[in-house]
Amino acid sequence: RKEVEQDPGPFNVPEGATVAFNCTYSNSASQSFFWYRQDCRKEPKLLMSVYSSGNEDGRFTAQLNRASQYISLLIRDSKLSDSATYLCVVGRSDSARQLTFGSGTQLTVLP
Amino acid sequence: DAMVIQNPRYQVTQFGKPVTLSCSQTLNHNVMYWYQQKSSQAPKLLFHYYDKDFNNEADTPDNFQSRRPNTSFCFLDIRSPGLGDAAMYLCATSREEGERNFGPGTRLLVL
C-alpha cells in the first residue's frame, strides 16, 4: 500500500462547479498535511496547509479526518486557472523534513 | 525576489555520460532537497542536506551523488545516467522543517 494515495483523475468539470478531492495516508502517526498545486511541466507550489480543525482560503477548503486517515480539498466556483494537478503531501511523524508526496489528482476546468 | 534557481532547465546527455545539475537559492534556507519526478508520478526524495549534514534516502541509487559546498548551492551528480534516469529533477529548500520552496526543475533527457 502506498503511503499517500490519491485518485489520479482526471477530473473534468465546468467552470463554476464545485469539486472535491480526497487523499488517504497509511501512517496513523503522521503530523503534518498539505496540498500542493503543480501546473503542467512546472514545479509544485504550496496551496495550503491542512489543520486539524479544517481551514479555508478563499474558494479552497481543506479538511483532515484523522480517524479515517484522509484529507480532502474542496474547490468552489472553479476557474479555468484552477486547472492543474493537486498533490496531497503528508509529513512523517519522526521528521517534518520527510514529506511524502502523492501522485496527484489532475483537474481540468472547462469553459 | 528570493528564489530557488536551477540550471540548466533542460539537459540532454548520453547513456553513461556523467551529468551535473545545479541549484542555488537566495532564501538563506538551511535545508536543501533533491527530488526526482517522472511523468504522472509523485516527486521522489533522493536526498537532503540539513545544513552540512547529508541525508540519503535508503532507496536512492548509488549512481546519484550530491554536493553542497555552501549554504546557497547544491549539486546533483549522476555518474552514469541510464535511460530510466530521464525525469524532472526538482531542487527545493526549507527553513528548518517548514514548507518546501521548489525551483523550476531541470528536465533530463538520456539518449
Please tell me how large the radius of gyration of chain B is: 13 Å
Shape label of chain A: globular
Largest interface comes to: A-B, 23 and 21 residues
The biggest beta sheet of chain B, please? 7 strands, mixed
- Provide the helix percentage of chain B: under 10%
Instruction: Identify low-pLDDT runs of chain B.
Output: none
Query: Which of globular, elongated, flat, extended, rod-shaped describes the shape of chain B?
Result: globular
**What is the radius of gyration of chain A?**
13 Å
Describe what you observe in this structure.
The complex is a heterodimer of chains A (111) and B (111). Helix content of chain A is 0%, strand content 53%. Chain A has strands spanning 4-6, 11-14, 19-25, 32-38, 44-49, 55-57, 60-65, 70-75, 84-91, 99-101, 105-110. Chain A is globular, with a radius of gyration of 13 Å. Chain B has strands at 4-7, 10-13, 19-25, 31-37, 44-50, 53-56, 64-67, 73-78, 87-94, 101-102, 106-110. In chain B, strands 2, 4, 5, 6, 9, 10 and 11 form a seven-stranded mixed beta sheet that branches. The model of chain B has no long low-confidence stretch (mean pLDDT 94). Classes of the chains: A mainly beta (111), B mainly beta (111).
Sequence-ordered SSE layout with sheet pairings:
The complex is a heterodimer of chains A (111) and B (111).
Chain A: E1 4-6, E2 11-14, E3 19-25, E4 32-38, E5 44-49, E6 55-57, E7 60-65, E8 70-75, E9 84-91, E10 99-101, E11 105-110
Chain B: E1 4-7, E2 10-13, E3 19-25, E4 31-37, E5 44-50, E6 53-56, E7 64-67, E8 73-78, E9 87-94, E10 101-102, E11 106-110
Parallel strand pairs in B: 2-11
Antiparallel strand pairs in B: 1-3, 3-8, 4-5, 4-9, 5-6, 7-8, 9-10, 9-11
Q: What's the quick description here?
A:
Chain A has strands at 4-6, 11-14, 19-25, 32-38, 44-49, 55-57, 60-65, 70-75, 84-91, 99-101, 105-110.
Feature tags:
heterodimer, A: 111 residues, mainly beta, five-stranded antiparallel sheet, 0% helix, B: 111 residues, seven-stranded mixed sheet, four-stranded antiparallel sheet, 11 strands
